[in-house]
């Protein structure tokens, strides 16, 4: 079973409906994003990127931070009203952006961008005010940096949306390609992977039950400073067309993620706890980062601005998105969703009656099946990136990814249906008095 954290204050968090609603909506974006990827078509790639990175990953991050920043810091969430309001604004914005890109309706992009900014900035303000009262540590530092990146990436996104609709970039002297490159850099390496690094600094020791080493602590402190700086330099160099600036930033980014991967791998190898879907998927993350980092550092040293090396070495850039970003979200959700439900449904019964443990809430067989499907899809994507593959292999990878995503979403939704206190329609669309209590 998963460890049940002892040093957390669940009373400091929001009502369980707030984070769970984020996760349910994010799962819908996941399935939609994979489906769009399988279907393809004009505008499908950019739409899929927004469905998966913005809709699935970012909404998951928003829900997870809203739940766990107050819980592990022991500081009350700044505003439950704002935490409840951020989801519909961001979800409408992300869906509008994906729809506009998919169907080529550029007029909707600025409107959708405003909704996305409103939702994300509401989240940034709420979590930022909460973090201001929390004790400063490695995780807090990463999350504070990630909030800044969320502001930067959404600001760049709105400008891009306006440029798609009315062409504003020539007036400010920036090309769309340069701004798009900086936008993608800030999104993946800034908002998403900075959050991932901060979360793993908290979750990896908690769930592997391993102690830090002196060398590991020094490396982690160096990464805490160097990685966010590297993201700024890499994005700035790409925006301004300054290879030397981007080159330094790229080395810092690759080095920082190598540290994250190596420290995670060490903890997983030293862990004596039972393997869970969370830790198994974290192992994929560790291997991905360790493989990705040296290849990408070399590619960025050669040419950090080339579009083909946007996410690192061309052979492993997609691997980072799938194995580094996707699997950390998959693994974390396999603990977070059951944990939240278990705490609110069963924790007060522990010791008085037989209750299921956290890992008993989902189906192990389905978790094994979705992991196999998504793992095979990842291997297929990696093989396709480094060698010619037979026609139809991309479709096979897409089908495997879709089946895996559907099984994963169904497994977690099953936790809510069987063990949650409310039906899914009520959870997603209902209005709760407790959410309005600030």
Automatic annotation (TrEMBL):
Keywords: Membrane, Transmembrane, Transmembrane helix. It comes from the Archaea. SUPFAM superfamilies: Cytochrome c oxidase subunit I-like (SSF81442). The chain crosses the membrane at residues 20-39, 51-69, 89-122, 143-162, 182-204, 251-270, 282-301, 321-343, 366-389, 395-417. The keyword Transmembrane applies. This is Uncharacterized protein.
